[in-house]
Amino acid sequence: MAAVRTSSEVAFNRIAIAAVLIATLIFLAPIYWIASTAFKPKELAVSVPPTVLFEPEVTPFVRLFTKRVQMQKPVDPQVYDAAPWWEKRIYDGGERVLKVGKDVQLSQYPDRFMNSLIVAVISTVLAVGMGTFTAYGFSRFKIAGEADLLFFILSTRMLPPVVVAIPMFLMYRMVGLNDSHIGLIILYVAFNLSFSVWLMKGFMDEIPKEYEEAALVDGYTRMQAFFKIVLPEAATGIAATAVFCFITAWNEYAFALIMTNRRAQTAPPFIPSQIGSGLPDWTTIAAGTFLFLLPVAIFTFLLRNHLLRGVTFGAIRK
Amino acid sequence: MASVALTNLDPASRAAARGWSDLTIRNLFIIPTLVFLIVFNIFPLIYSLGYSFTNFAANRSEPWQFVGLQNYRELLSDDHIWSNFVITAKYVIVSVAGQMIVGFGLALLLNRSFPMKGLITTLLLLPMMMSAAVVGLFWQLLYSPSWGPINYVFGLGDFAWLSNPDSALYAVAITDIWMWSPFVMLLSLAGLSAVPQHLYEAAAIDRAGWWYTFTRITLPLVSPILLIALIFRTMEAFKTFDIAYTMTTQPTAELIAIRLYKQAFQQWDTGKSCALAYIVLIMVLAITNLYVKYLNKVKER
Fold first, then answer.
1. Which of A186, A197, A219 lies nearest to residue B33, judging by beta carbons?
2. A100 and A169 part of one domain
3. Which sign, positive or negative, has the C-alpha torsion A246, B172, B184, B231?
4. pLDDT digit string (tens) for A303-316?
């Protein structure tokens, strides 16, 4: 700032920064709580007063991935000694891991996590792929009624999921797509496609037309120019769009709740269904939540410079 | 819709093109997306419009009957549905107002240079990137009456946030404010950083007070982008399903989207729920229209 700072301005600045730090701590506290609960011994998760500092353990993750039953009597010491460390932790909790022969029986969590991954990755590839082509079309060619078409595309994104889900559920039931990966992938592509078109159009508009025109003069076909000139230029934009689409599909709940129940169920409807009756085991739920949120947290850092664009469909950028 | 796109083409680029013509490429790039969206978004909506005039129930095999406007008439005179709309309106007002205040406030505080500003901004944005359903779930733990950290920190004893009919909706709104204030903050920051610095310098030379500078320079210049944040969040809050559905089962927190879900997939009153879906849809489209209008306005500036 050109103007000389008065001492009251400096003081105000310091207060503002202190307030920001306090606000950040408040905003992060819930995230800290879920992350720390994932590493707590069972009894500390529901202690009064709440436990902030403790010796972390990974037992909740062992419980998350295994099927277990309560033990009627204490474990045979020889069996205990022979067991690997993670199985000992389960014995310590008065439970034993279910096995078929020697193989540990896995819980449903890894399956649901994989379903989330399959559906999110495939739907992202399709939505971003189609979106990139379409965005290029809108960015470079004259199209009659372009504004109306773009509004139509965006408006599909705004449809409430439950509203779309009712007819889709009936149609899927007719063609047997209920509780299938493909069914969910189609819905997520339809949902993310409009976003991908709008965001990619913003990125495409920024690539100077002259680049391709020079290539056309050099004897490239339009398709070659698109693949060899435009796509590499748009790589950052494509990556950012893909991460946004992935996060949306990864987090989606309503469609997954309605369209899947067993085979293709993804993590978001599965994790809350684990609460069940009686006293929930919060450490295991927290462990599942922690693993589920981790990729999104990492992606948020990778995306940080594109977040503004992403949340405004490419309309506003820094 | 596709046929309108077949005319008009820049002859220069056409001449430059070898291989496929620009016209072919344009259609090849655009038409699949339009077809996909029509087949998987518009067609289902037409399908459900049809069902909204019937007494169809998806869990029964009896043939359905055409009932005309009866579903719509019943819905619009149903006190239960109206109370769902009132609950939704309360929720939208409380949570969007909260997000605007907290989000804009944070942006004002952040709008200065200090060490690690980028990191702190990114950390603040984490909540809105998370799955609303899972957020709703783990806030149950935070709100827990007996061992939850919120009651402990604020000394609220065993206040049951989520099972108390009077507080359940507001508990959900607080969580929503936590989750989405960062969104308003992000947009506000963009608006604030676009305010030309020389205006502030001029105001400082004129010895303008803080309040005067804020109301005469900052607010007018940031308001278009704040309006976008407001409309967008209003639309999203109106559609809220996940976070409220995983947090509480209180009837006082039954938002319209939850009502719709229950009517369609728990009571299997399919025909009527299609009608309700249309009522909700018309409201959402009205807000969307407004949103796009302002988005285009800001974009043009």
1. A197
2. no
3. positive
4. 888 888 888 887 77
